Automatic annotation (TrEMBL):
Recorded GO MF terms: ABC-type phosphonate transporter activity; ATP binding; ATP hydrolysis activity
Record-annotated membrane-spanning stretches: none
UniProt cross-references to PANTHER family, sorted A to Z: AMINO ACID IMPORT ATP-BINDING PROTEIN, PHOSPHONATES IMPORT ATP-BINDING PROTEIN PHNC
Full protein name: Phosphate-import ATP-binding protein PhnC
Length: 272
């Protein structure tokens, strides 16, 4: 389904992403880990065409999405929604309008100028918010919500696009452990129930181990680990993070309570 072939991105003299290749069959939950500056964000930005690659190909169902131009490129950007650490909502706008912004580029200029949305679109936005457990927040300004709720609004906005792939760049880096868990559980549910691939840059090992089917470790732009969470031992993690024997896993922990797995009772209650 996804084949990344020898993708490189050079900034000046430095390769931020350096000849990376991997293949993902089916709608997996893929985590990308690595220290700051490893190239994780640059790779996600290349995937959804916010940044151009210097060379390489990314084949999605056999089509090189790096070669797309014009409307085909915009269609691809709609097919792969992006979620950011800082949510990127319009703070003073109400929640349901923020969700509707997921399909802003599908509307005419007149519709956009007069803020006209069809009843079907509004009902769809509300039903997505309902699914994510925050429909009662729909009329509130986005800025009035907690960080975890705002990130769920951002996920709802992504779902409004009906994407094939969700790219999440450090989606829980600004959240406390409880909210981090709800957001990760939400992404996992979307992955499992909808069959959408999720590729998430994660800064914590415990989260990668708990939620991902596959973990890719990057260091200095290169892939230095590609395996299952079970293969991600402390020694492997030390290599990925370029740390010495004093490497302490706790420093890369979100501290999501260990007795909670994905889709557990807590998340079910929050998301029902
Ligand atoms: N637009 C740019 N111009 C110049 N250098 C850049 C640009 N974007 C990224 N870089 C450099 O590329 C390297 C990889 O950055 P990137 O943001 O992809 O890393 P990262 O693993 O996502 O780290 P972080 O978690 O801190 O965001 C860094 O050295 C960064 O300074």
């Amino acid at each position: 389904m996804l084949e990344v072939r020898n993708v490189t991105r050079v900034f000046g003299q430095k390769a931020a992403v350096d000849d990376i290749s991997f293949t993902v069959e089916g709608p997996a939950f893929v985590g990308i880990i690595g220290r700051s500056g490893a190239g994780k964000s640059t790779f996600l930005r290349i995937m959804n065409r916010l940044t151009d690659a210097s060379s390489g190909q990314i084949l999605v169902e056999g089509r090189d999405i790096l070669a797309l131009r014009g409307s085909a490129q915009r269609q691809w950007q709609s097919d792969c929604a992006m979620i950011f650490q800082q949510f990127n909502l319009v703070p003073r706008m109400d929640v349901v309008s923020n969700v509707l912004h997921g399909i802003l580029n599908r509307r005419s200029t007149v519709q956009t100028m007069f803020n006209l949305w069809s009843q079907a679109d509004i009902l769809r936005a509300l039903s997505i918010l309902d699914r994510l457990g925050i429909v009662e927040q729909a009329p509130k300004r986005a800025e009035a919500l907690s960080g975890g709720q705002q990130q769920r609004v951002a996920i709802a906005r992504a779902l409004m696009q009906d994407p094939k792939i969700i790219l999440a760049d450090e989606p829980i880096a600004s959240l406390d452990p409880m909210n981090a868990q709800v957001v990760m559980d939400t992404l996992k549910r979307i992955n499992v129930e909808d069959g959408r691939m999720v590729i998430a840059n994660l800064h914590t090992l415990d989260t990668a181990r708990r939620y991902c089917d596959r973990v890719i470790g990057m260091r200095d732009g290169r892939i230095v680990f590609d395996g299952t969470p079970a293969q991600l031992s402390t020694g492997v993690a030390r290599d990925i993070y370029g740390a010495d024997a004093s490497f302490n896993e706790a420093a890369t922990s979100t501290a999501i309570p260990a007795d909670h797995g994905p889709d557990d009772a807590y998340a079910a209650k929050m998301l029902a």
